[in-house]
Amino acid sequence: MSLARTMEGLMAGNSVIRKMFEMGQEMAKNYGKDQVYDFSLGNPVAPVPYEVKNAIISLLENQDPHEIHGYMKNAGFDDVRTQVAEHLNSRFGQNYHKDNILLCAGAAGGLNILMRCLLDEEDEVLCFAPYFTEYKSYVSHYKGKLAVVPMRADDFSLNLDAAERMIRQRTKAVILNNPNNPSGIIYSEEELLLLTKMLKEAEERVGHPIYLICDEPYRELAYDGREVPYLPNLYRNSIYLYSFSKTLSIPGERIGYMAISDAVEDGELLMQAAIITGRTLGFVNAPSLFQKVIGQCLDVKIDLGFYDRNRKLLYTELTEMGFTCVPPQGAFYLLVKSPLEDTESFVKLAEKQHIILVPTDGFGLPGYFRLAYCVPYEKIEASLPAFRALAEDCRNWESEKEAEEER
Amino acid sequence: MSLARTMEGLMAGNSVIRKMFEMGQEMAKNYGKDQVYDFSLGNPVAPVPYEVKNAIISLLENQDPHEIHGYMKNAGFDDVRTQVAEHLNSRFGQNYHKDNILLCAGAAGGLNILMRCLLDEEDEVLCFAPYFTEYKSYVSHYKGKLAVVPMRADDFSLNLDAAERMIRQRTKAVILNNPNNPSGIIYSEEELLLLTKMLKEAEERVGHPIYLICDEPYRELAYDGREVPYLPNLYRNSIYLYSFSKTLSIPGERIGYMAISDAVEDGELLMQAAIITGRTLGFVNAPSLFQKVIGQCLDVKIDLGFYDRNRKLLYTELTEMGFTCVPPQGAFYLLVKSPLEDTESFVKLAEKQHIILVPTDGFGLPGYFRLAYCVPYEKIEASLPAFRALAEDCRNWESEKEAEEER
Asked: Which residue of B has its CA nearest to A123?
């Protein structure tokens, strides 16, 4: 074998999201884009705020091209790091300064940097099911272990009893994704206070910091006026990760940041390590022009209504059709329970209706499907007859199966 | 220790280039930018070609923002991959097609992706001294070993005898950086034919492919009409890595590509692995706007004269002052031999003259210093008196030392 043996697992577990996305692309070629209802990929379609284009043009017109396209300190432009720190301070009452901020290639880049910094072979990272499926790979690159806290049956709250039992000496960190992909749940302050209390006790027990990695690319997508609690205010050893992919609809540009406050145990050392790791993992620095762009767009608000309309329409209609859905509170994902026990047959029936959904087995949640409703509203409207037919097909499939079993 | 134990080595060996760069910044603050001659960092200062700005503005004006800032296939935009393939075909007579091309975050991003794809624990990668110091980290992230082929004394040609002896069963790849950083040498076709002949024989001996990773961010910086041979034309199992950092003076933007031709053994598998690895290492995709930009700038030529003038002035003047320099053929680095046996004292004498050089011990080349002459011409002119004083200081230092020894 020419490749590393350890690539086998990685390739076998290749993202089902991407597979479904590519199937959708294929279908669109065969049947026409209008005839395919692709809910596979979290590709933001809310308008890119005009401030993004304005910022780019103003940077091109007014600044030295060597400054905006050139190398800077590996941690990012100092002025932008200061802007990010001040933004977080004014919004969440923190005391960040520029040296607490690392500009990185989205939250995914930041997570890889952290895994490299924290994990020796066999070290563990905890996360809660359902979880973003890529965490497994992020951890395995550095030979760590992702320990997935199982859900209580059909209960999307944090299973803290199980988590507490699973924390051991080798547990270096917990990743929490809030709002959650794929469930669309927002963990409440009450729940997070219980989590952080448990973690503080666990830290005393194991005698070293257990970093709480706050993976929050969906922070701005919180509906019905819900608040997403700022975890660094609740737990000292929090490492905050943010991405502008969803807020500014620029996921291709790979821009986000990591914030490690002075309160974090060994925080300064960890920041130094993260800067060096970011460079040596080949990121070198976050893309430079977009560092400057987000510096000018920190207060730009997303048009939340854009996704909220989709959320309401899809949830209401699917529920009415008889599908069981998890009420979505944040992000742009809707979880639908498979109406059939045999989920593979459900995928096939959906495909027959040209509906592309992502099974969430890989997210630690078998029996469910994720719909990314970051699509044009008209697309959802147009998909409703297909969903209705799918509901009907499912009922027929069940009764045919029953009839077959009776024979 | 909160951090991974394996971070200790990485942090201890933190880039001396960056350390010197930051020292230069500090000095500039204290003495004024004009009074500091900083040759530490390979930060391209040739003008950013106007085509870059034009491409960005035309993309912003004419294309759907969701297309230019959004997700695409992890390998990159299909149209840009096709453009890159066609560019390489017309230039080097290859037969690339889009599926041979992966757009990645510069050559550094591509190298990390390849190391993850190829290396199990203890697998080896060969490189030739002097070598780009970051290779060590790229390999160690995935628990591989960098085996450095030593130089023959003061001979900057490839030490093929030693290389041949060092290739073993666990050797997965050889990295060759041409033009070379830090030496400024361009390996000739004759030399490379000997290398590839040796590698083909070694492949037969070990019974598996030994990939030749062609790390060529400096390809366009070849002076005096020298040609940089295209290695994939000489060796089947070549993996070609390119970056636009130097060609377009946009190193902050992190954009480059990897090309794996159909001829490469297990090449299709390797490309698949690279795409998945790029995603899961947290790159996700190369920055999207700049994918489109380089698609429009593939034939843009750098103003080579910009660096060539610097090269000639610096080489001529330093040689006249009595410094021993390696005649620079490519890239924008000049190697100067330490006039003192005690290199630390030389660094201190240089500092006294506000000259910032990088010792090349970390590049596998003790006793030398790297000058990155990618600075304004006027800077080099202004630095000459300081170099003259340094040469004088070195002579005094030697004679004082002799006098001391006689006492």
From this structure: B4
CB–CB contacts below 8 A, A to B: 243
Q: What is the mean pLDDT of residues A313-342?
A: 96
Where do the domains of chain A lie? 7-47+303-406, 50-296
CB contact under 8 A, A69 and B272: no
B74 contact residues in A (CB cutoff 8 A): 18
State how far the Cα of A271 lies from the Cα of A57, in Å rounded to an integer.
Answer: 32
Q: Report the amino acid identity of residue B42.
A: G
Note the CATH architecture for domain B7-48+303-401.
Answer: Alpha-Beta Complex (3.90)
At the fourth CATH level, the homologous superfamily of domain A7-47+303-406 is Aspartate Aminotransferase, domain 1 (3.90.1150.10)
* Residue A27 contacts residue A234 (beta carbons within 8 Å): no
CB B170 within 8 A of CB B148: no
Secondary structure class of B20 (helix, strand, coil):
helix
For B77-107, give one letter per residue: b (16+ CB within 10 A) or e. Answer: beebbbbbbebbeeeeebebebbbbbbbbbb
Res. A41: pLDDT tops 90: no
Cβ contacts of B116 on chain A, cutoff 8 Å: 4, 7, 141
Residue A377, classed as helix, strand or coil, is: helix
Most B CBs within 10 A among A5, A7, A64, A210, hence the mutation to make, goes to A7
Give me the CATH topology for the region B50-296.
Aspartate Aminotransferase; domain 2 (3.40.640)
Neighbours of B404 (CB within 10 A): 8
Do the beta carbons of residue B175 and residue B215 sit within 8 Å? yes
Q: Quick: pLDDT tens for B221-260.
A: 999 999 999 999 999 999 999 999 999 999 999 999 999 9
Collect all residues of chain A within an 8 Å Cβ-Cβ radius of residue B132: none
Residue of B nearest to A109 (CA): B282
Are B70 and A252 a contacting pair at CB < 8 A? yes
